Each structure stands twice: as C-alpha cells, then as structure tokens.
Amino acid sequence: MMRLSCFCQHLSMDSAFKSPIFHPTASFSHSQVSFPFFSFQAQYLSLNKPPTILRCSNSSTISSTTNGNNNNMAGLPVKKKRKRYRKQYPGENEGITEEMRFVAMRLRNIKGKKVSSDSVSDSETDTENNPSDQEKDDSETVKSGENGSGGEAETWSPTMEGFLKYLVDSKFVFNTIERIVDESDDVAYAYFRKTGLERSAGLSKDLEWFSQRDLVVPEPSNPGVSYVNYLKELAEKSAPLFLSHFYNIYFSHIAGGQVIARKVSDQLLEGTELEFYKWEGDVQESLKDVRKNLNMLGEHWSRDDRNKCLKEAAKSFKFLGQIVRLIIL
C-alpha cells in the first residue's frame, strides 16, 4: 500500500508539469487544461472569417470626427467659426452717463441744424469743465420756440408770470425726486442721498421771496404735474430708468440753467441772484460724485436696461423742455 501511494503521488506531480492536451472535433475545439489545484475547459468557434483588428483612439479624435465635417476623413484641422463682437455704443467704455451725454448731443439743436456726435465730440469733452459753453447751447433750445423747428425767435422775452410757473413746476419736480430717493427702500437710491445737488430747499426760499413782494405764486401747471406723475410710476417700476431721469434733471439744470437765470435776472429781477442757482461747495465735484456712483451701478445693468435708460434720457429732456418753455408762454 505504501508503494502504491508513492506511485500515485509521483504520477500526479508528473501530470502537473505536462503540456495541455487538445482534442479537436468537427465544429468546435475543446481544450482541457489540468493543473494541480483546478482545471478549466474553453471552447473556440471556427468561423473562417478574417480576424478583427481593434485599435484605440483618444477622445480628441472621436470628438473631432463627431463634431466636425463628416467629409473631413483626412485628419485636416476643422475651421472654427469667427466670433462676432457687438458694436459698442458711443461712450459705452466710460459709463452710462457718457452714453446719455451722447444722446443729449444728438437731440440738441444749434442754429436750426442737427449736430452729429462725430462733429462735436472733441469740443463736447470740455463741457463738463466749462459749463458756460453748454449753457449757451442750451439757451438756444429756449429761444427755438415750442414747435422745435429750430428757428430762433426774434426776441426772447420772459414774463414774470411764466417765470413763476417755471419755478413752481421745477420745485414740484425736485421735491419729488428728492423725496423718492430719501424714502425708498431700494438700495440703489441710497447712493444718491445728500449729494449736495438738492434744489427743493432753495426753491422754497425763492418762492417765499416772490410772495413777500405781492406776487401770486401759482399751483403746478400741466407740464410739471405730468412729469411728476411719470417719475412716480417709473420709480416703482425700475430704479435704473428712474435714475436716468434723476441724473439728467440735475445735469440739465447745472449745465443749462445758469444762462437762463442770468437772462431772467437781468430783465425781470434787476440782477437779483436766486437761491435756485446757488450751491454749497463745488457743484461740479458734487455732480462728478453722482456721475461716478451712477456709472458704478450701470456696470451691473444689462445692455437692455442701458438702452432703456438712453430712451428715458431723451424723455427727460423732452419733459424739461416743456417746463422751460413756461418762461416765455
């Protein structure tokens, strides 16, 4: 028994090192592979077809083939579409207030002729530092008449009654925009409180001065009432659009109001200077701060909102023009 056991062990060790034995059949090939601890059987199917060659490709090749031109089989680079850039608005690089200034330039008439932004862009750059030039140009609007045809009237004769209407309507407008800014919960309006440009207090003193001289101070007229109602609706609807009017109301008064004040003062008030045209401190610096804050907010507005602000700037000049014309009506 001992010999038989040794023989069996010797036989199993020899078979473990022998090469596997293959047994072909008619349609399938079976192979039996024996190992000391396990064995497995595999089948191979004979199909008489050429072998399939597989190869790897990176993701860039697959994406270029899928997304590119289907006829681009030679591996040529795919031509990319040229990116189109939107044409910028005049003054867009400097801020929304500069864009509105270009709107004012296009709307302004000088001696009955429209002035293009290209022809006056160089001279207009100095307007902010030298407002007297702007005042002379804006005075032409007052003299051009109500129809806006651009032809100057033979004489510019303000009346006391018309000037008082102008002051009353102006006070109504300034009171409204200053109250809205002070009382609103919109954080955007907080940047425009106590700017140093406020006019309602000075106008109250002027109207009191007129009333002490037995002049009848009228109620706000239709131009002022219409503008105030529009401003109230706009303030609830959109802060950017309201602030467009806010800025242009002050800018128009500072830039164009001085020449009007001098003419009226010389003809009606014997040279008296009204509080409406006095500021504490440097008014240009105060306007510069307002302009800076508005440009800062404008950077966060969409292009659509900016375009709407430009349209509102044109409406602002229209409303203000109607109030100014009260002086000569």
From TrEMBL:
Subcellular location, record wording: Plastid, Chloroplast
Region (Disordered): 64-92, 114-156
GO CC annotations on file: chloroplast
Biased composition (Basic residues): 78-87
Statement: the UniProt record of this protein carries the keyword rRNA-binding: no
Pfam families: Heme_oxygenase
Name of the protein in question: Inactive heme oxygenase 2, chloroplastic
Principal subcellular localisation of the protein: plastid
Annotated signal sequence range: none
The keyword Transport appears for this protein: no
Family the entry assigns: Belongs to the heme oxygenase family.
Gene3D superfamilies, A to Z: Heme oxygenase-like
CDD domains (alphabetical): HemeO
Species annotation: Gossypium raimondii (Peruvian cotton)
GO molecular function: heme oxygenase (decyclizing) activity
GO biological process, one term: heme oxidation
UniProt keyword terms in alphabetical order: Chloroplast, Photosynthesis, Plastid, Transit peptide
